[in-house]
Amino acid sequence: xxxxxxxxxxxxxxxxxxxxxxxxxxxxxxxxxxxxxxxxxxxxxxxxxxxxxxxxxxxxxxxxxxxxxxxxxxxxxxxxxxxxxxxxxxxxxxxxxxxxxxxxxxxxxxxxxxxxxxxxxxxxxxxxxxxxxxxxxxxxxxxxxxxxxxxxxxxxxxxxxxxxxxxxxxxxxxxxxxxxxxxxxxxxxxxxxxxxxxxxxxxxxxxxxxxxxxxxxxxxxxxxxxxxxxxxxxxxxxxxxxxxxxxxxxxxxxxxxxxxxxxxxxxxxxxxxxxxxxxxxxxxxxxxxxxxxxxxxxxxxxxxxxxxxxxxxxxxxxxxxxxxxxxxxxxxxxxxxxxxxxxxxxxxxxxxxxxxxxxxxxxxxxxxxxxxxxxxxxxxxxxxxxxxxxxxxxxxxxxxxxxxxxxxxxxxxxxxxxxxxxxxxxxxxxxxxxx
Length: 435
Hints:
Belongs to the glycosyl hydrolase 26 family. This is GH26 domain-containing protein. With 435 residues, this protein is α/β, with parallel strands linked by helices. Helix content is 35%, strand content 15%. It contains 11 helices and 14 strands. The strands form 3 sheets. The protein has an 8-stranded parallel beta barrel, surrounded by 5 helices. Helix 2 (86-93) links the parallel strand 1 (73-79) and strand 2 (99-106). It starts with a helix and ends with a strand.
């Protein structure tokens, strides 16, 4: 009896030991798999690029820095980086963004004027999937940031271009014609600051391109009760007042030029861009489908939709035609640095309106417009849910009904649309298509 009991205990212990050993081996195999998976996942698509003055001269083909040839629209996204990275977009969409945007501040009052670690992390994340990084810098002191700080930023961009092989579209001081930016309504200071930044970037790299990108000016000058900046007057700021009163009538109104006073000059601008959204509210009706032709009307500052927004544009002689003035006339590539149409979940849907109808109408207007505008080369969709006065969901990929339609429309377009996988870069700032 005792011998049988001992044998039973022996085999029980042996079995337990074997099971523990096998589970331990299984755990080690799983850990090795995870490490291998993560290593593969974190293997960059883009790699280091040697940047020097002799090999990396600016492209001589007549194209701007980071400008691809005409005929294909690069599709990108602005991300909520606290929730997503470009790899997540690749998982959702089946392709990596051709352009990925992030916002950062440049504040000379801080001991670290810009977040070097965060900037590096952003660029590294883009390198893992390929494509171009759109860096939207908000300068807190547009004309008083020291040359030393700007030089440090320019050299950092060069180093990141080189270390990770990621090209950068530097959208510096975006929406400078709006009252919600600290540098708004200050064209003299803005142009000076932009030019300083451009000159320093050009000293070090052609893989970073300068982007000048105001806000849509159809309803300029956007006076609001929550303004960060106020319009200058002849008494408070005679220099900027004179620059903004373009028709010389002694006041700044929608009859004045919403773009030109802020333009730094052809020599310093590689790309021109415009923040352009469908933004329904109580006036238009919440969760309204964008009217036919809305995107094109607003981009050109004419047509039924533009006049409905601002009847004063009826006789402006093309003053609000952003694409015509700054892309076509100057042969500058045009991008939508951020755009979308929201589903407002805090409001009910009415009739046959759906989230898909709202968003698909918008992206189809953009895709159609790009076919007729050869200099329209990038569209960056705002992939974020935001809460302001309403709960606005701007995302194209989050909804399981919207996402397949968004992807299907690109598939139908074939080679009309380009993603990160389709792009190749050189240190001279050239962008070509690999497929």
